[in-house]
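ingest -> validate -> predict -> emit
validate: passed (alphabet ok, no gaps, 207 aa)
predict: started
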Amino acid sequence: MKLAVFDFDSTLMDGETLEIIARKIGIDKEVKEITDRAMRGELDFFESLQYRVSLLKGMPVKTVNEICRNLPAMPGAMETIRELKKRGFTVICFSGGFKNATIPFKEKYGLNCEFSNILHEKDGILTGLVGGEMMFNNSKGEMLKRLQSITGTSIEDTITVGDGANDLSMFKYSGTKIAFCAKPILEKQADIIIKEKNLSLILDKIA
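emit:
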């Protein structure tokens, strides 16, 4: 098996889910500042995620789901996913974001699987709490190791694509590391750097 693992926010999706949700209640500037610092590696991802989600407390889940169903895909995302699957890759999304967004994207664009977090809600209202599979700086790397072990996939047959500091951990277990419109901290560890917002540009760079 061959694995192609993509980050979601600002990689498969053109934007940051938390910022887009926060815009609805007028706190997107505050959320963006924290997100940017976390993606540059200046803040602990777990702590920054908890804080940002706490700011959403009180939002109706229905509103969040409506926003997440209409998030814009990155240019070239559909073409890239389809082509990689034709080449024999299993295409997966790892996201420090939320299943409200990654599940609809998976279904619409044909991802094989997604791993992300869950916004806790009670009686249809966000509580400001979050939990899930991608909560920590090293979560993506740990999940990738497990998938490689389960599927018998080698590091050499693994491609990873991301843009921020929380993608560093999956780069450690990847034969081809792609920094897509990425922060400098990730570019330093990448084999391939794409600076244009067109995901399909990676197809000419990989076998």
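Residues 139-151 form the longest helix (13 residues).
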